[in-house]
Every structure is written in C-alpha cells, then in structure tokens.
Amino acid sequence: MTQRTLGTASPLTVSTLGLGCMGMSEFYGTPDHAGGIATIHRALDLGVTFLDTADMYGPFTNEKLVGEAIASAPLARDRIQLATKFGNERRADGSMVGINGRPEYVRAACDASLQRLGLDHIDLYYQHRVDPEVPIEETVGAMKELVEAGKVRHLGLSEASAATIRRAHAVHPITALQTEYSLFTRDIEDEILPTLRELGIGLVPYSPLGRGILTGAIDRSTLQDGDSRAAGRFPRFEGSALDANLELVARVRAIAERVGCTPGQLALAWVLAQGEDVTPIPGTKRVRYLEENVGAADVTLDAATLRELVEAVPRGAVAGERYGDMSTIDR
After folding, report:
1. Distance between CA atoms of residues 128 and 55, nearest Å
2. What 8-state DSSP symbol labels residue 283?
3. Distance in angstroms (rounded) separating the CA atoms of residues 219 and 144
4. Which of 43, 96, 201, 296 has CB 3.0 to 4.6 Å from 268, enough for a Cys bridge?
C-alpha cells in the first residue's frame, strides 16, 4: 500500500486507503467484535494503517475494539495512524445528548477516548460535528491545548463549512477535513474542496462507496434489521429514490466490467483520482470486503474513463438527500 500526506502546515502521512471501523460496532447490522479485530489485523497486514473511529460509535465500544486490535496488532504502534472524534455526545444507552464543542468537554472527551483506546496519544483528533452554540475558535483552542500537552498530534474537522474551516485553521493548523465524498456526493467540490486546497488541508472522504450502494451489492433484500440504511435515516435508500439510484449503479457496473474491476473498486479509484491529498476511509467489518477495497489502489483510470464516470453519474441525477432529519455541514 502506498502512502499519502494529509495537510502541509501540520502534515500527517497515512496509507493511501484508510479503514472506517464504525460498522464493526453499530449502524450496519449486527456488531461483530471478533470479526472487526480480524479485519483490522488484515488491514494492517495489507498496509492499511490509517484507522478511523469515534467515541459515539457503539457508543464507546468501537474505540475499545480498535484499541484492543492495536494492542494485539502485528505492527508497531508508531506505524499506525489512529483517528478518532468527539462532539456527537451520547449516553451509554445510545441516546443522543447533542453536539458539544465546549472546551471543558473537549478535554474530558479526549481523556476518555485515550483510556478506552489504551493509547497515550491520538494521531488525528476530529471535531465530529461543529457546535453552533460554541465559537469554533474556542473549540479548536481547546484542541490546540491537547496538542501542546502531547495527547494529540494533529487536528481535524468533520462536516465543516468553508467559513468554519478558515476560522479554525487560523487558530491551529487543521490537517484534515473528514466529510462525505463519492460519485454520489460531490457538493464539496463547489466551495469546500477549493478551500482545503488553498489552505493545504487534506481530505478524508467517509462513505466513499455511497454507504455501500456503489459496490453493486445492495438491493431491497440485502439490508438487515438494525441497518441504519433501512431505518429511514437515508432518503437515497427509500422507495423510488433507491430504484433510481440503482439504475445509476448499473451504469457504474457496466464501466467496471470494461475496466476489469468491481463497481466498488471503480468508485474508490475515482475518489483516489481526485488528488494526492485525498485518502478515503471505506468501512467494513469483513475481511473479504476489505481485500476488495484494497484492490482499488491498483486500479488506474485514464482521463476518458474519469469523464465517462461523471457523465454516467451526474450530480443532479442522484435521487434523495444524503441524510434525512440530521443536520450535517454547518452553515
């Protein structure tokens, strides 16, 4: 696995593909602790060293899983890049408290994450969602203190607007923005991505496979009980919108067959082709899907194929909003 560098003012070198660990504990069907650890270990074997978690996943259990996997990993800690997040505050029973960016919470959340992870530092610490009630300068100021204390190496934001990114970056260099980006979700190309490039901030796309739909393996029969995609949270997976979006996936599949890869590999290769400062984190809890995703790093797309893909999946053709009643990028 090759590597890429996120950020310029506070650069972090990571594997070209990362691994999103959320689904090992929640949101995508039955949690699988043992399978998750096996998948993380296989990822490390394959050179996927950039691991992504958050305190809210589980809640709290995913950090413990990732920490356990790192502790038993066949790879030294200093060769693993661990990213976690704070800000979506949940109770132990899973209910939401709300978005919290208060400085005292930032400090407490970091200490709690370090304890669950069993680590002495976090390589990349994100604010998971921007708190509209707390100036970003105050939140990032507290995050900066964590860097100065040696608890955190690099800072990130998730689902932040261009204006918020600028204000945050003025307090302390932001290494990476994590936000949704795929053939199905390209809104950040208008203002956010140019801002990242201007400021020298890396992009970490989550859901680079459109929450799995771009793999070609999803239809109405494949979504399990407990799968958030079947629970009304994501309009793109409902009713006529799903039918329309599956037609777009069929176009991707046809191109993939000609290229000689799977639809998911093609979709990931498209994301990787958007720049050397882009490191997607496709999530899975299964070794076989991980291995398929890793194969995307070997898929090279020429300019004609890249044009064909965006013509096959025009931005305006994707049916449904990416979220239902959840607020996402701050305004």
Report:
1. 9
2. B
3. 44
4. 296
Backbone angles phi, psi at 15, to 5 degrees: -70, 150
Paired tokens of 165: 């990114």
Distance CA(13)–CA(4), nearest Å, equals 6
| Distance (Å) of CA 276 to CA 15, 44, 85, 91 | 11, 21, 23, 38
| 57 given a catalytic annotation | yes
The residues near 180 (Cβ < 8 Å, ≥ 6 apart) are 159, 205, 206, 207, 322, 328
| pLDDT the model gives residue 316 | 87
pLDDT (average), residues 318-329: 76
- The catalytic position among 57, 105, 181, 206 is 57
What is the model's pLDDT at position 213? Answer: 95
Mean pLDDT of the chain: 94
* Angle, helices 61-71/103-117, rounded to nearest 10 degrees: 40
Structure-model confidence comparison of residues 28 and 111, the more confident one: 111
Side-chain-side CA neighbours of 139 within 13 Å: the count stands at 29
124 exposure class (CB count in 10 Å sphere: 0-12, 13-18, 19+): buried
> 37: Cβ–Cβ under 8 A, 6 or more apart, which residues?
65, 68, 69, 72
Distance CA 293, CA 265 (A): 6
Q: Look at residues 134, 138, 208, 153 and name the one whose alpha carbon lies nearest to residue 7.
A: 153
Q: How far is CA 251 from CA 223, 307, 309, in A?
A: 22, 13, 8
Contact 324, 233 (CB under 8 A): yes
3-state SS assignment for residue 129: coil
Rounded Cα distance, 214 and 64, in Å: 30
pTM: 0.95
Alpha-carbon 98 to chain mean position? 20
